[in-house]
Every structure is written in structure tokens, then in C-alpha cells.
């Protein structure tokens, strides 16, 4: 008789263990979503460089970049005058128009990639990128409000380098006018 109680106790213990394992399996939280990939993190910046930022979204560009990339867009590395330009250094290089670089220049109406190459080399890469993309057109990226710009750097630290990116042709636009930068704006 003792054996049957022992068998019953073993059966009960096995059932409890099985039930406990089932409960544990149900309590385990689903895996958390993966962090955004670097390509997703650069969408706002790459969109701005490649003329894909809409007229309605461009005015808040610097604020968005500061939220998405606080280590890169909070403090300028260098500021230039005539025209007013801010240079920001990226943690990782980005690719735009077939060129790669880790420095971004923002003016009142332009977002530019500073490419460590003379204009001839950067322009050749641009032309190749456009030729490679003819099967996937720019989908309206260039229009009356968006223009591709490429020019040789002339300011200190930019010689023998090329600036390539997008000019946003919108009256009154100032990408540098940001409430966080009120110290820069002279008071009347």
C-alpha cells in the first residue's frame, strides 16, 4: 500500500513540475524589438542630403537631427561666416549621391556632405550614382523646391574637398534658425 502512495506522490510531483514548466513558458516575455539599424538611424539625415525631405518637414530638420543623433548634432565642430555654415562631425560615415563622408555642413538652406575628395572625383561618383539609379528614379526628389548642389570647398579646412547635397529653395527658410540657438541671433 505504501507503494501506491509513493507512486501517487511521484505522479503528483511530475504533474506539478510539468504544470510549472508550462506556466514559466507562458510568463516569459516576448523578445523586445531589435534596436534600429544604422541605416534606419540615418534616414532623416540621408533624406535631407538627397533632397527627399518635404517642404513641410525641412524647417524642423535640425531639431529632429538633434533628437535622433544627440552626440553628433548638439555641438558644432566649427562655424563659418559668409555664408553662415555649421560643420558637424558624425560618429560614422554616411553615403549620399555615391559619395561617403563623416562631416555635415548646414547652411540657411542647404544640407551638405563634406567629401574628402576633389570636385572632379566627387562629381564622377555622383554621375555614376545617378547612372546606376536610372532604373529607380529619384521619385520627385528634384523639383522647384529641391536642387542638387556640388561645389568645391573654399573655407579653411575644406580646401581640396567637395560639398555635395541639397539646396531647399523655400522663401524665409533658415535651417540654422533654431530656438535652442537663440544666443546666436542678435537682438533688435
N- and C-termini, Cα separation:
101 Å
Helix/sheet category = alpha+beta
Biggest β-sheet: strands ordered side by side in the sheet: 1-2-3-4-6-5
How many H/I helices? 7
Morphology:
globular
Low-confidence stretches: 8-13, 15-42
Number of strands: 6
SSE succession: HHHHHHEEEEHEE
Question: Strand percentage, roughly?
Answer: 15-25%
Kindly report the average pLDDT value. 79
Characterize the main sheet.
6 strands, antiparallel
Helical amount among residues, as a percent range?
25-40%
Using the CA coordinates, give the radius of gyration.
Answer: 28 Å
Describe the overall structure.
With about 190 residues, the protein is α+β, with helices and mostly antiparallel strands. About 35% of the residues lie in helices and about 25% in strands. It has helices spanning about 1-25, 40, 45-50, 55-60, 60-70, 70-75, 120-130, and strands at about 80, 85-95, 100-105, 110-115, 145-150, 160-170. Strands 1-2-3-4-6-5 form a six-stranded antiparallel sheet. A hairpin with a 3-residue loop joins β3 (about 100-105) and β4. About 20% of the residues are buried.
What descriptive keywords fit this protein?
188 residues; alpha+beta; 6-stranded antiparallel beta sheet; 7 helices; globular
Brief description of this entry?
With 188 residues, the protein is of the alpha+beta class. The chain has helices at residues 2-27, 38-41, 43-49, 55-58, 61-68, 70-73, 119-132; strands at 78-80, 85-96, 99-106, 110-115, 146-152, 162-168.
Amino acid at each position: 500500500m505504501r507503494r501506491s502512495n509513493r507512486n501517487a506522490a511521484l505522479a503528483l510531483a511530475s504533474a506539478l513540475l510539468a504544470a510549472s514548466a508550462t506556466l514559466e513558458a507562458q510568463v516569459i516575455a516576448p523578445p523586445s524589438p531589435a534596436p534600429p539599424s544604422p541605416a534606419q538611424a540615418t534616414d532623416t539625415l540621408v533624406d535631407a542630403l538627397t533632397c527627399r525631405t518635404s517642404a513641410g518637414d525641412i524647417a524642423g530638420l535640425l531639431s529632429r537631427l538633434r533628437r535622433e543623433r544627440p552626440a553628433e548634432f548638439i555641438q558644432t565642430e566649427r562655424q563659418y561666416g559668409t555664408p553662415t555654415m555649421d560643420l558637424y562631425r558624425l560618429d560614422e560615415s554616411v553615403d549620399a549621391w555615391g559619395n561617403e563622408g563623416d562631416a555635415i555642413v548646414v547652411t540657411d538652406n542647404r544640407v551638405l556632405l563634406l567629401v574628402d575628395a576633389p570636385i572632379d572625383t566627387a562629381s564622377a561618383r555622383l554621375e555614376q550614382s545617378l547612372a546606376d539609379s536610372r532604373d529607380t528614379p529619384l521619385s520627385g526628389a528634384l523639383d522647384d523646391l529641391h536642387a542638387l548642389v556640388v561645389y568645391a570647398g573654399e573655407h579653411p579646412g575644406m580646401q581640396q574637398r567637395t560639398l555635395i547635397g541639397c539646396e531647399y529653395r523655400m522663401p524665409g527658410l533658415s535651417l540654422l534658425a533654431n530656438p535652442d540657438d537663440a544666443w546666436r541671433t542678435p537682438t533688435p
